[in-house]
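Example record

One chain of 195 residues, shown exactly as stored in the release files.
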Amino acid sequence: MKIEEADEGELIVLRRALSGQKASNHKEQRENIFHTRCTINGRVCSLMVDRGSCANVASITLFDKLLLNTEPHPQPYPIQWLNQGKGLKVSTRCLISFSIGENYMDELWSDIIPMDAYHVLLGRPLLYDRKVTYDGFLNTYSLHKNGRKITLVPLLHIKFLSPSPLDHSKMEKSYFPSLIQCSRSSKGSSRPLSN
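Predicted structure tokens for this chain:
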């Protein structure tokens, strides 16, 4: 069995809203979301797996920075965030080739949306198509690829900061709901991108 850890290097865009610390024991995995780093076109990008998301999505920033090819979505659909607002229509997608560690390389269709938290969010399509097994205790994902069992392990313990920087009592609260509610029925250089 191959254990794949996060790719190393500077991210294409750093996120100020996140802080991280290493989890010291398995109990701390109870409330952690799964996130790691992957490599796309030789650049290190942030990646999250959200079992509650019904789509694989990628940020517009990722496509702008890496100049990836997009195509019209074959079945455009609206998505809504966690409020009851108008939402937005997903109308483009891209086939992303990425790797995590040395042994896991994959290609997945991802819908393109404005998203600030991560570059890539993988959801139910990845889990279903790759017959992925989730271990909630260890917060790992396992799958078989090219005749080998590969286990993806999380990068860090993520804690999202409070919107109010003055309220220090809430700054370390661990909380991150599912990002999307759908309403539809090669290793390379790890240098950062310039802005």
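Notes: DSSP finds two helices and 14 strands in the chain.
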